[in-house]
Amino acid sequence: MAADPVRDAEFTEYVTAKALWLRKVAYLLCGDWHGADDLVQAAITKLYVNWHRAVRADNIDGYARTTLVNTFLAEQRSPWARWVVLRGAQDTAPARDGDVEATLDLRTALAALPPGQRATVVLRYFCDLSVAEAAQTLGCSPGNVKSQTARGIDTLRRMLQTRHAVSSPEGCEP
Fold this sequence. Notes:
The chain is an all-alpha fold and 174 residues long. It has 9 helices and no strands. α1 crosses α4, α1 crosses α7 and α7 (115-126) crosses α9.
């Protein structure tokens, strides 16, 4: 494929503008910043290869998000993901405001969800997609998105209630 300076400039401008957003979504999907960086790199490589399709899409952000989520889900199905777990030093971004402990509990609980549930919860509640948009992104039915989201939310509630009950024994609440 011959180099096209205009195409490359458009791609570079888009990725530069959306890199932080892609990284945040990737972090919510995979649960650690190093993995998020690798996931974004793999996704933008695929995006570059298919940039001619992406610019013709009605929603380039949707195309990029779909590429990112599909890359994440494909990696989760790979034997490599089951054999290699690179989770030593937990590098986390500093919290801006709010309840840091609750944020960390939510991130831990989110990371414990199965990949499909995690993807639907991230798409529905972080990316603020409708059921239909999430289904289109994941390439599945709206019913599948609804059931995966419901299971994911139920699991998150149970995990967070358990953590709260353990951290606040009866009679010791502030």
